[in-house]
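Suppose you are handed only these lines of text.
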Amino acid sequence: ADRQAGAEWNGVGETADGHRVKILANVGSAADARAAADAGAEGVGLFRTEFCYLDAPSEPSVEEQRAAYAAILAPFAGKPVVVRTLDAGADKPLAFLAPDPEPNPALGVRGLRVARERPEVLDRQLAAIAAAAADSGAEVSVMAPMVATAEEAAWFAGRVRAAGIARAGVMIEIPAAALAAREILEVTDFVSVGTNDLAQYTFAADRQLGAVAALNDPWQPALLRLIALVGEAARATGKPAGVCGEAAADPRLARVLTGLGITSLSMNAAAIRSVGASLAEVGFADCEAAARSALAGER
Ligand code: PEP
Ligand code: MG
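From them, the structure of the protein bound to magnesium ion can be written out as follows.
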């Protein structure tokens, strides 16, 4: 039986037989970070830095960014926090990183593609993140949004390491990146699957359009097969692979993702206890069985 929200959870993400899956939070503000810490998150799996600047008319200075990030990192001293570099464009436009007009912004210059056109903006953000990490004592790693190839991942990881940040990862949210997960993990320290965009691009269904919302369903076997490739790549390379899209907040899907080889789940604070409790009441073999059923199209 599925546990209800608010069921018992001891605060350590693991199955009943001790298979560890970290339960992390998605945050975009200091209020989110406090709520996540209060909810018992083991860390932050996705800090959406662009949320700090949706209304900013110009690029914030390194010192402004440092202060904003440090305030969000503060509740997580000694804990892991994954900071995502600016995911500008499409559904999250930033005035200071606006591209030339594009017919299809979701397929245009967004996320890491902006950083490659404006590497000085990325380097300033990385300097601010490194300083905020030192201020807060959080165990900070950095990841890039909207990565399509291992070459892009390697470029980003090089930039992160040059900024003195130890751990560099990328999001898997483009189908090509899921298909290249092995090569991407070989040049990074971790990956995290963004199921919101991975579904959008897999089903060619705009995530903001209600008319195609039924296609953007993370239980769809085609999406789960892509996630399975990422889980297999994580096992083969011995590196972590998280999920930080909305799929991670579904207590039953959390078991499926665990069975597919995903090693951490990151979600809104409200989902943390019910996902933690859901994993705690089944064994890893049950998760693998749930994954096999879901891959076959059963719910
Ligand atoms: C995702 O695409 O699943 C994701 C976590 O990133 P965002 O929702 O911010 O695009
Ligand atoms: Mg995304």
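What can we learn from it? The CA atoms of residues 256 and 291 lie 4 Å apart. Strands lie at 22-27, 44-48, 80-84, 139-144, 167-172, 190-193, 241-243, 264-267.
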